[in-house]
Specification:
Helix content is about 0%, strand content about 65%. The protein has about 220 residues and is mostly beta strands.
């Protein structure tokens, strides 16, 4: 068998409605090979192969790409009491470039806060940096490491005024890929710093926060 070519056949399960969607060759010795499939196979069973052979350059076999990512996060809150109302909406989107050991990209987010007497709206734009202790590449299911996020924005007050905002987060993250896909769930916790600047005052808020994102790599 040529070292530069590997012949891969499309495998069909005899059992109805069960089909291998991907086949990965792990090791070859002579005419025998160890393969990994996305469908469950049973030892000793015989599976029918198509007659047509598919020839693929071994160096060109690739899984789904993880070079870019789109991350979406959201939070909804509606709390009421006898004389208190607290309704909040937070939406965040991040685009990223993956360099395996680190990831960077821009962020945008929006927050609406209604305490029963009108709505304050916050708009943010910034960027993030992840350092991947576990290299983020194909076949890796868990990626983790430290993360840093910096955003600036404005707060539109219900009174008609506005304020300048700055958010900074420093913490850690864990990204877990859903089995057999390039979609992942990302959870992060961080120390959060926010500065609110108005024409008359500066206010700094600090504390711990957590976020969750659904991440699509492509």
């Amino acid at each position: 068998m040529s070292k530069s070519k590997i012949f891969i056949f499309t495998v069909f399960m005899i059992v109805q409605s069960v089909q291998a969607s991907t086949v990965t060759v792990r090791k070859i010795k002579g005419r025998q090979a160890i393969i990994e499939t996305s469908a469950a196979l049973e030892v000793g069973q015989t599976y029918e192969l198509q007659n047509e052979q598919i020839s693929i350059d071994a160096n060109g076999i690739k899984s789904q790409s993880r070079k870019n990512s789109l991350q979406l996060g959201a939070e909804l809150q509606s709390l009421t009491a006898a004389n208190v109302q607290d309704n909040r909406i937070f939406i965040s989107a991040r685009y990223g470039w993956n360099f395996e050991y680190f990831e960077i990209g821009p962020t945008i987010s929006y927050q609406s806060i209604d305490l029963g007497a009108g709505t304050d709206s916050d708009f943010f734009a910034g960027g993030y940096f992840d350092y991947n202790i576990q290299k983020n590449k194909n076949q890796t299911m868990y990626v983790w490491g430290p993360t840093f996020n910096l955003e600036v924005g404005t707060k539109q007050l219900k009174s008609g005024g506005s304020a300048s905002l700055m958010n900074a987060d420093l913490g850690g993250f864990l990204t877990w890929y859903l089995s057999g896909t390039s979609t992942a769930l990302r959870i992060q916790g961080a120390y959060h710093y926010q500065k609110i600047t108005t024409p008359t005052t500066d206010t700094a808020l600090t504390g711990l926060m957590s976020k969750a994102y659904l991440v699509f790599y492509f």
